[in-house]
Amino acid sequence: MSALAALRERLNRLGSAVEDPGVLPLALPPIDDRLPRGGLALGRLHRVAGTGDDPAGAPATGFAARLLARLQRRGPVLWCAAADDLYPPALAALGLMPDRLVLVRPRDEKGVLAVAEEALRTKGFGAVLAEAAHAELLAERRLQLACESHGTTALLLQRRPVAPRAGKTAASAAVTRWAVAPAPSGGDAGWVGPARWELALTHSRGGRPGRWIVETEDGTDRLAVVAELADHATETLDPARRLAG
User: Fold this and answer.
1) Alpha-carbon gap, residue 21 to 126, rounded angstroms
2) Per-10-residue mean pLDDT for the chain, 245 residues long?
3) How far apart are the first and last CA of the chain?
4) Helix (H) or strand (E) holding 129
5) Which residues 6+ apart lie within 8 Å of 163 measured at CB?
6) pLDDT score recorded for residue 226
7) With contact defined as beta carbons under 8 Å apart, do 123 and 89 qualify?
8) 174-222 pLDDT, tens digit each
9) What are phi and psi of 213, to 5 degrees?
10) Any bridge partners for residue 229, and if so which?
11) What is the spatial distance between Cα 149 and Cα 140, in angstroms, rounded to a whole number?
12) Quick check: helix, strand or coil at residue 80?
């Protein structure tokens, strides 16, 4: 399987404008072990979707923001959304530095996807995030092709669960697809602990899906894997969890 994945990746790179930009390890061994080459493929499209009953999609937004914070080390990052509810100080608390973050607010999702594609074809960005609840497969393919122009990574954020449109399939051009839902806090009755999410890698091209309970660390882009989930059952939470850097 690893040889097949490597061959597929090589074929995908034929005709690309740049060399393979490598991977970004998440510093979470249980998750990195399921990603090809031990990390998030750079210069590729990745989709993050909210699940569960959180109407604001905070877990999905928080996970995407932490990924973007890691990617800003490669250059300024662009966050493109039609909504006006982003709070820059909160993004800064997650590690997104104001001098490395460009916020763009197009009129609608069509404009979001157009701006994101143009930004990916513009040299200099470390990553581009586009918020779109209804990105068609063709639009995702255009974003993926734009990623290859300069090896820039793209995140497609869908904050809330959205039912597929009639006659449409759930196909995606993203090389990884993530689903993020809120999970009960680890605090006892007298203390509310750090926020926890149920993080699912539902698709990984050349890798293996998986599900975990992860814990956030406020004010940083760090996460900790608290438990790995199997067969939709929560395993015993390990108190000696590993912090991610």
Assistant:
1) 11
2) 55 56 94 95 96 83 94 95 90 90 95 96 95 93 94 94 58 93 75 85 94 84 87 46 42
3) 29
4) strand 127-131
5) none
6) 93
7) no
8) 999 999 999 988 766 556 778 899 999 999 999 999 999 999 876 667 8
9) -95, 125
10) 211
11) 15
12) strand
* Tokens read off for 176: 């990884």
Encoded tokens for 8: 């597929």
pLDDT at 88: 87
Task: Give the length of the chain.
Answer: 245
CA 74/CA 13 separation, integer angstroms: 20
| Residue listed under structure tokens 């991977």 | 23
Distant-in-sequence, close-in-space partners of 37: CB < 8 Å, separation ≥ 6: 23
Token pair in block for residue 64: 């995407």
Per-residue model confidence as pLDDT tens digits over 211-233: 999 998 766 678 999 999 975 44
HSE-CB of 14 using CA atoms within 13 angstroms: 5
Tokens describing residue 161 = 């669960």
Q: Are 200 and 178 in contact (CB under 8 A)?
A: yes
Please state the pTM of the whole predicted model. 0.83
In whole angstroms, what separates CA 138 from the centre of its chain?
A: 20
DSSP class of residue 133 equals: S
Q: Residue 189 corresponds to which tokens in the numbers above? A: 């009755």
**What is residue 38's DSSP assignment?**
G
